[in-house]
Specification:
Layout lengths: L8 H8 L3 H4 L23 H23 L4 E4 L3 E4 H7 L5 E8 L4 E6 L1 H11 L16 H22 L6 E8 L13 E12 L2 E10 H6 L1 H28 L5 E3 L8 H5 L15 E5 L2 E11 L2 E9 L7
Antiparallel strand pairs: 1-6, 2-6, 3-4, 3-5, 4-7, 6-7, 8-9, 9-10, 10-11
Helix pairs in contact: 3-6, 3-8, 5-6
């Protein structure tokens, strides 16, 4: 089932045209099945904006998890992927944590998935343990885990809403919690969803994945805002990059030197040099300022604040663009 209600040109042609053999009463040959509305979903221009949002979410998620894990976790994200909701459901464990949130003004809702094992480890760490102990396998959460899970979900969804506020103000509201993906009423089985995945590693040798599932139909309802923000982010990032590059280049230190004289000696005179010998030189009125083997200016030698100095009299023609 497609998310775009309009028919493609091929579908309209299939409806309007009639084979010549059918008009003449002849056999039209074997029929060919045609799935109306079955064209591939059009590309979403909003996905790049969500990917950039996920990059900025890394710091926020680190700050959310640290009070529970008692250590600063490592957080990484992956590019957003799109697949059918049925495929995603088939990959889920029989027992997991699913929180359904309304995310107005986006149509529908979003889904937050957390591994039960991660919740158990956080409970252990929060109450003084190491968090590294392998948790028990269970089919339901304990009262303590339920309490911590509720606080964790609210903190995560709050951080997500804060990140989204840079694109469009959102109002998250909890609708339901489930532990079986089969009862997660986010979308129909054949509808497409966008998956945002964050890998969280609070303890050595252990990592978990927190998923945020967006229905594609809901994202399309705010796609103009997302696409516009994506373009703004690219422009702002390019401008920021240019500014930072210019600042960095401006801080590079290079060696500049000047040559007061260039006396010439024969090889025999050079071999006979001793301490105290005097080599006569002729000082020219202007001496060059040399950078990276290239003369860039001419100046006169003098004194400034008690130190020898070079006063620039003439800049050489530059062979590069400023």
């Amino acid at each position: 089932m497609t998310q775009d209600p309009s028919l493609s040109g091929e579908e309209i042609s299939a409806l309007m045209s009639e084979p010549e053999t059918a008009r003449q009463g002849g056999d039209s040959g074997p029929t060919r099945p045609f799935a109306f509305g079955g064209e591939p979903p059009r590309t979403m221009s909003a996905i790049p904006a969500i990917d950039r949002l996920n990059e900025r979410m890394i710091r926020r998620l680190r700050d959310v998890i640290e009070p529970f894990s008692r250590v600063k976790p490592k957080v990484a994200t992956e590019p957003c992927t799109i697949r059918s909701f049925a495929e995603w459901q088939a990959e889920q464990a029989e027992f997991t944590s699913l929180s359904l949130y309304a995310f107005r003004p986006m149509k529908g809702a979003i889904l937050l998935r957390i591994d039960p094992e991660f919740v158990s480890r956080l409970v252990d760490a929060f109450y003084g343990g190491s968090g590294a102990q392998a948790p028990r396998r269970a089919r339901e959460f304990t009262a303590t885990e339920e309490s911590l899970l509720g606080r964790l979900c609210e903190a995560l969804i709050g951080a997500l809403a804060e990140g989204w506020s840079e694109i469009i103000p959102v109002r998250p509201q909890l609708r339901a919690r489930e532990t079986n993906a089969g009862f997660a009423g986010l979308a129909k089985a054949d509808e497409m969803v966008a998956l945002a995945r964050f890998t969280i590693s609070p303890w050595p040798g252990h990592s978990t994945v927190v998923e945020i599932v967006y229905p594609v139909a809901g994202l399309r309802s705010i796609e103009p805002e997302l696409a516009a923000k994506s373009h703004e982010d690219v422009t702002a990032k390019t401008s920021e990059w240019r500014e930072r590059l210019g600042t960095a280049v401006g801080e590079v230190r290079i060696e500049a030197r000047t040559v007061l004289a260039r006396p010439e000696l024969s090889l025999s005179e050079l071999m006979q040099l001793q301490a105290g010998d005097i080599i006569p030189v002729s000082l020219s009125k202007h001496v060059p300022l040399i950078v990276a083997g290239r003369r860039i200016a001419l100046g006169t030698v003098g004194e400034h604040d008690g130190r020898a100095a070079l006063k620039i009299e003439k800049m050489e023609q530059r062979r590069f663009r400023s």
